[in-house]
Specification:
single chain; alpha/beta; Arc Repressor Mutant, subunit A; seven-stranded parallel sheet; three-stranded antiparallel sheet
C-alpha cells in the first residue's frame, strides 16, 4: 500500500472513531505498529490528526458546545493526567492562596497535595469534598451547579471570585489553540475561569496533549496569560507564546 493511501485510510478511521490506538490501526491496516507510528507522526506534523502517546485523535478545530461528562473524561489519558497532577502539586508553597478549577486533571492534583499551610478555594463540588477529607483549609464558591462537570458557575460565582487575590491558580481547559487561546464550551464556566485567572498572580493550565489544537465555543484567556503544564506539546510554536512545562517520567 502506498503511503498516500495508507495516510488516507488512517485519517478515515480516526475521523470515524474520533480516537484510536496504534495497535487498533496496525490491525485494521494489516501493518506494523512502527509503520503506524511513523505515519501518525507525519500526519500530525501536517495538522491532519492529533497524535498522543499510544494513539491519535481527530482534528476538529471547531468543537462547539459538546462536552463529555466527568466519568467519561476521568478515563481518558489517565496516566498523563496523573503525571501532570503530581508535578503541579510540588508548585504549592506554604502560605499560598490557591484556586483549583473544576476538572478531571485538577481533581487529580488534590490527590498529591500535602501542604497544609496553604489555603484552597475551588468551584468543583467533588474537589471541595476531597480537600476537606485531606484535612486541608478549603473553601468553595457559591453559584449554580453544572451537572456535566460538577462545577459551580454563574454570575454569583464570578462575584465571589472578585473578592479574592490568589497567589496561584490551577486551571482546566477543553482546548488550547495558537489563535483562539484556551477555550471551553460553556459561557458561564468561561466567565468563572476568566475571573479566576485575572485574580491570580500566576495561573497554570493543566492539560494533557489531546487538548492542543482544539477550539471550543468560548475563549477564556489567551495563551500568554497562563503557563501550561502538560505531558507533551505537539508543536513548539506553543512554546513561543507562553511558558510550557512538559512533565516526562
Amino acid at each position: 500500500m502506498l503511503n498516500h493511501d495508507r495516510y488516507q485510510l488512517i485519517q478515515d478511521i480516526i475521523n470515524e472513531r474520533h480516537t484510536v490506538t496504534v495497535a487498533e490501526l496496525a490491525k485494521a491496516l494489516n501493518t506494523s505498529e512502527s509503520t503506524v507510528r511513523r505515519d501518525l507522526t507525519a500526519l500530525d506534523e501536517l495538522g491532519k490528526i492529533r497524535k498522543f502517546f499510544g494513539g491519535a485523535a481527530s482534528v476538529n478545530r471547531h468543537e462547539g458546545f459538546f462536552e463529555d461528562d466527568v466519568r467519561t473524561r476521568e478515563s481518558v489519558m489517565s496516566e498523563e493526567k496523573t503525571r501532570i497532577a503530581r508535578y503541579s502539586a510540588t508548585l504549592i508553597n506554604d502560605n499560598d492562596f490557591v484556586y483549583i478549577d473544576a476538572g478531571t486533571t485538577t481533581s487529580r492534583l488534590i490527590d498529591f497535595i500535602d501542604n497544609k499551610n496553604a489555603t484552597y478555594i475551588t468551584n468543583g463540588i467533588s474537589h471541595g469534598r476531597k480537600l476537606i477529607h485531606k484535612g486541608l483549609n478549603a473553601y468553595i464558591i457559591g453559584g449554580k451547579i453544572k451537572a456535566v462537570t460538577e462545577a459551580i458557575i454563574s454570575a454569583e460565582g464570578v462575584s465571589n471570585l472578585r473578592n479574592f487575590n490568589f497567589s496561584k491558580a490551577f486551571m482546566g481547559t477543553n482546548g488550547i489553540d495558537l489563535a483562539a487561546g484556551y477555550t471551553t464550551p460553556d459561557i458561564e464556566e468561561a466567565m468563572i475561569k476568566e475571573t479566576a485567572i485575572k485574580q491570580s498572580y500566576t495561573s497554570f493550565i493543566l492539560a494533557d496533549n489531546t487538548k492542543f489544537r482544539r477550539v471550543f465555543s468560548v475563549t477564556f484567556a489567551q495563551l500568554v496569560k497562563c503557563c501550561i503544564i502538560t505531558d507533551s506539546v505537539p508543536d513548539n510554536k506553543f512554546k513561543n507564546e507562553t511558558i510550557v512545562k512538559e512533565v516526562i517520567e
